[in-house]
Design goal:
Distance between the termini: 103 Å
Strand order of the largest sheet: 3-9-8-5-6
Strand content: over 45%
Helix content: under 10%
Radius of gyration: 35 Å
Order of helices and strands: EEEEEEEEEEEEEEEEEEEE
Structural class: mainly beta
Number of helices: 0
C-alpha cells in the first residue's frame, strides 16, 4: 500500500503479510519519519517503528500505521492474513489382479492434486486413472493451492495372476481308480504338479 502524508512531502509504503496458519507475523512500513502502529484508526498505540510483530493470532487481523509528528499522515491499513491449511484428502489404496489401468479416488473440501513417485503432478480432481501398470505403484495426493495439505501416499497393488491349469483326461472300462493330472503354471510363480484321484464306475 502506498500513501502520502498530509504535508505532501513524505511517501510511505506499508506491506501486509499472508501466512498459512502461523500464529505470529511481522508487518512492515517504510517512510521518511516515525511510524506508529495502532489496533484501529485513532485507536490504541501498539508499536513504533518500521515493523510490527503481531501477538499470537489464529485469524486475520487488520492493523493501522500512521507516520509523522507535527503533521501526521492518514492511517493506512496493513492486514495480517491467516489462511487455514487445507485438510488432508481421504483416500485408500486399491488392489488389482493382473496388469491394468487402475482408478484411485479421494475426497476433500478443496481441489485435489495427484502426483507420481517423483512428485510430478499427474492429475487433478477426485479421481485419477493410472497408465497401464505391470507392477505395484505409489501415487501421492494432496488438497488446496494457497495453503496445501500434507501429501498422502496412495498405493496401487498389482497381484500376479497364475495361468489356468492344464489337465489330462483318462478313460477306463469297468470300474477302478483313475488319476487325473493338472499342471499349474504361472509366468511369475514356479510350476507345480497336482494328482487328483477319483473312483469311476462304468455301468
Amino acid at each position: 500500500f502506498f500513501f502520502q502524508a498530509e504535508d505532501g512531502i513524505r511517501d510511505h509504503c506499508v506491506t501486509g503479510v499472508q501466512t498459512c496458519a502461523l500464529p505470529i507475523l511481522t508487518l512492515h512500513a517504510s517512510s521518511s519519519s516515525t511510524n506508529r502502529w495502532y489496533d484501529a484508526p485513532n485507536g490504541n498505540l501498539i508499536a513504533t517503528g518500521d515493523s510490527l510483530t503481531t501477538p499470537d493470532i489464529n485469524q486475520t487481523r487488520n492493523y493501522y500505521v500512521q507516520s509523522g509528528d507535527l503533521c501526521k499522515s492518514t492511517f493506512v491499513m496493513a492486514s495480517a492474513v491467516v489462511t487455514p491449511v487445507s485438510s488432508v484428502p481421504v483416500s485408500s489404496g486399491v488392489s488389482h489382479c493382473g496388469d491394468a489401468s487402475v482408478t484411485l479416488t479421494a475426497a476433500a473440501a478443496d481441489t485435489i492434486y495427484w502426483f507420481d513417485e517423483l512428485l510430478n503432478q499427474v492429475g487433478t480432481g477426485t479421481s485419477f486413472t493410472s497408465p497401464l501398470l505391470t507392477q505395484s505403484a505409489i501415487y501421492y495426493v494432496r488438497s488446496g493451492t494457497l495453503c496445501p495439505s500434507a501429501m498422502v501416499a496412495d498405493t496401487i497393488t498389482i497381484n500376479s495372476v497364475p495361468s489356468a491349469p492344464v489337465t489330462t483326461g483318462q478313460s477306463i472300462c469297468g470300474h477302478g481308480i483313475l488319476n487325473l493330472n493338472a499342471d499349474r503354471k504361472s509366468t511369475r510363480l514356479n510350476s507345480s504338479h497336482t494328482v487328483i484321484s477319483y473312483a469311476v464306475f462304468c455301468l
